[in-house]
Design brief:
Length: about 425
Amino acid sequence: MAQTAGGYSLRCVACGATYEDDGVRLDCSQEHAPALLRSVFAPAFAVEDTDSMLRYRNWLPCGRRIATSARSGVYRSERLGERLGLSKLWIAFSGWWPERGARLATATFKELEAYAVLARLAEGERRTLVVASAGNTAAAFARAATELELPALIIIPLGAWERLARLVAIGPSVHVVAVDGGQYEDAIALSRSLAADPRFVLEGGVRNVARRDGMGTAMLEAFESIGTLPDVYVQGVGSGAGALAVHEAALRLIATGSRFAAKLPRLFLAQNAPFTPIHDAWSAKSPALIPRTPELAREQIAKLGAPVLSNVSPPYAAAGGVRDALRESNGETYAVGNDEMERARAMFAELEGIEIEPAAGVALGALVQALRRGDLARDATVLLHVTGGGATRREAVRMEQRPALVVRRGDGTFDQPAANARRFASAVR
Ligand SMILES: [Zn+2]
């Protein structure tokens, strides 16, 4: 089998083709319907004695050695569990809460993904990594690439700039392009326009195995803390990368043959109404996402209290995608409105003593719905992933910062890849 020096390979979920990892491959080269690649690691669950996500290095696709203190914290909830009537509620806290062992400086789980993606890059990689983001991913990559001094071009909607500039002191290896009047989709479109330019390499989002493997460390943390796989896993999803990550991590744990990892956790996935493409497709038993016009999507996304959950083309129907994971795990999906989300955030703050991001409020709102409907037993082992929180406990960055470049959605060069590449290359220099 083709393997990289790190002792792992990549395998296509659809056709089984296997690849040695070059650090940036996103897709299978064979002709077939869309499918994800997965990393294939040595089967043993080996934990290194390191106080960071790198304790699971054995199951991370590493092309280089990096240092980081990033880590999720997992603990058993008392007060929230009691309020919900759940006897075994565990919280995976992927944010900033050092007292609970959570040390993600930009306060979301995206930091697990960012460090993993950068660690995956081959030692000799010289191209600038291009990352498109609705905000949290941008902050995570800005932080990680600054710390590791790796070149990154980060494209965000201008609306996301202020939060980013407050969270991260952006170093010289990182450049931010902001899209005035744009949403996440516009950032993605711009990043794709750079794909053909040899100076840049696309990070690729959910198709990048390191995104999922990095985020999967939250599940590995949970397995270590709980001692078993949970029965139910709850998360707010946009692309569904987090859900796939957890599912893949669970599959790996089950493959070890451990009696404590016998059954896949049921994925309870939550989306923020009114923009709920995964929930709509799953509820309608549709084999693919149900098409919406771009206008409707834009209008719905503008109403979201958790706009980070606004991915318009999550890998739902792809082999190894969200639909497969929901089917294999006997999962459920939920639509959570802004009011429910805010009530859930307030409840978490009151009972657990820390503020959580809107997307995490969507997850807790879904758990409340699930209990009301009787979708799970009160004595089930439940893992609620708080995918962001504690941001206000971080000291805001005071220094004056600006995007390297601001482009307007719909301006002359927006749809011209070569012109964009020239402009961006000179901004990065
Ligand atoms: Zn394939």
